[in-house]
Amino acid sequence: MILVLNSGSSSIKFKLYEHKSLKMVVSGTAQKIGEKNSIITVSDPYSKTTKELILPNHTVALKKIEEILISQNYINSFSSLFGVGHRVVHGGEDFHSPTLIDESVIESIKSNISLAPLHNRANLEGIKSIYHISPNIPQVAVFDTAFHQSMPPKAYRYAIPKELYTKYKIRRYGFHGTSHYYVSKKVAKLIKRDYKSLKIITLHLGNGASACAIDGGRSIDTSMGMTPLEGLVMGTRSGDIDAGVVLFLSNIVSTKEIDNLLNRESGLKGLCGINDLREIQKETDKNSDAQLALEVMAHRIIKYIGAYYAILGGLDAIVFTGGIGEHSALVREMVTKQIEHFGIEFDKTKNETTQKDAFEITKDTSSVKVWVIPTDEELVIATYTKEIIEALL
Ligand code: ADP
Q1: What residues are in contact with ligand 1 under a 6 Å CB criterion?
Q2: What gap in Å lies between CA 365 and CA 367, rounded to an integer?
Q3: pLDDT in tens, 179-213
Q4: Which of 2, 24, 290, 349 has its CB surrounded by the most CB atoms within 10 Å?
Q5: pTM for this model (two decimals)
């Protein structure tokens, strides 16, 4: 079995995969770690178990998860696992690909803490807890930033004094790399073309959202920057904004409050008071702010597609993924209808057909193909974990 972990500051999401077939057998979460009323949920296709208990830290939470997985006969113990794969948010410039974890990798992840303090610290907690419980299980780190390390300097450098880059590593890194990689590779398979020959734009639209330009399987630009705040309009994050606005705000409120305003009170929520797109869609008839929020979001996505079309020098496919990309026919239509002059023949009926798996939303004759592909970052992490560990055997 391979265990995939996504450790947050107060939560752990996990999925357990059969290691030969990479079939997911059970998944779950531990929430409110460090609080008095923690919850562990474990679900498989037939049942769901929820337990309320006290989980003071990540190690206790993982021990409890181990206990539940043993009691439900999924594993004998964590030490019997084939390996553990971790989602690690920020690999900085140190990691271009997934990596077997050893002391030096842990040190590098630590050295990138300043780039993503909350996320990397939590990811390290997960790694250390597994090491503490079962020191001999091979562990693999899969970085959100790694896929974008192929970006050229002209895409990743900000036009600010060079020392800010050399001294503080201030540059664009990009995130959601595992998702952009997975859906771009999958669309190549679905349209039966060689991944290495394709120009693809992927749109990961969830609460966090980013676009990526992929040329021959390599990310050449992406919309998130040094942090996940840059780029598209998100649930509660502003995306692109004039840095002058930040300076202006710094004369009115504290840095902490600016962080809160731009990361948690902006985006769709800032524009209309609601961050859940399902709710916004219900409001558009009667609420002009909700309608505007949708339009600002779609306009930004369209601008990025135009920019990426230009830098790619052509386009074979666009992929929508993430909660909004996978489920909002309205957003997909608002975006795709506006760019039909790029060689896209939009198919409204296909777009509105609800499907669980991947589906195309363009006509068979469309020269640029547009697809909806559910993302599966955990499966990619499980696959890398399997490959890296098998290569050691
Ligand atoms: P996260 O980035 O937290 O993983 P998700 O990928 O789950 O987020 O996406 C969450 C977003 O997807 C929310 O804005 C939610 O409203 C939207 N969403 C989920 N289901 C639907 C749906 N059926 N129709 C429209 N939007 C949806």
Answers
A1: 206-208, 235, 276-278, 322-324, 327-328
A2: 6
A3: 999 999 999 999 999 999 999 999 999 999 999 99
A4: 2
A5: 0.94
